[in-house]
Amino acid sequence: MATILDHTTFVRRTLRTRGVLPVELDDLTQDTVLGAWRSMRAGRFRPSPALPPGDSLRPWLAGIASRQASHYRDKAHRRHELPAVDPDRLSAFAAPSPEARLVARGLLRAFHFHRLRPELRELLSLAATGLSSHEIAASLSLLRPTVATRLRLARRLFARALTRSRRSPR
After folding, report:
1. pTM higher than 0.85
2. I want to staple 101 with a disulfide (CB 3.0 to 4.6 A). Which of 23, 41, 71, 95 is the partner?
């Protein structure tokens, strides 16, 4: 348990980057650490024999924190709460007129953006806010080549769907 508690700041930072509101951060950090401890006691933490256990613990905790944040966002969606958004970061992408926003919303609806795999949706959203692939990789605890591959796939699927929606009138 002591080794897990040593990584509490890392868990908290991971949850914060995944969109957990500051008001809920303490509770969710506690739930994540407690869940990790229970999983460890149940034998679900199996570090690679090639690596020291400390090196395997951090990515394992990042995975648990990501799942906790995902469950948190799902619950917030059901409660009709809005996720934490930094208005300064998104202001550069704000449409100058309501017409442009309506066109963008229509394109996303035509594409069925919500049907895209969650990891691809998250990557496209982060890329749309202006983050580089290095920053996205760091915030999602992924390798940069993985981010580049998934981003390329997401963009290709999005472009295909846009071409299909332009060809077929609705």
Report:
1. no
2. 95
The residues near 90 (Cβ < 8 Å, ≥ 6 apart) are: 129
CB neighbour class for 119 (10 Å; exposed up to 12, middle 13-18, buried from 19):
middle
> In this structure, which amino acid lies at residue 57?
L
Q: DSSP states of 118-166 as a string?
A: HHHHHHHHHHHTT--HHHHHHHHT--HHHHHHHHHHHHHHHHHHHHHHH
Q: Yes or no: say if 136 and 147 are a contact pair by the CB < 8 Å rule.
A: yes
Supply 74's token pair: 């799902």
CB burial of 27-48 (b: ≥16 within 10 Å; e: otherwise) equals: ebbebbbeebeeeeeeeebeee
The terminus-to-terminus CA distance of the chain in angstroms comes to 57
Cα 157 vs. chain centroid, distance in angstroms?
A: 19
Instruction: State pLDDT tens for residues 59-118.
Output: 888 888 888 888 887 775 555 555 555 555 545 555 456 666 666 666 666 566 666 787
Q: How many Å apart are CA 8 and CA 94, to the nearest integer?
A: 36
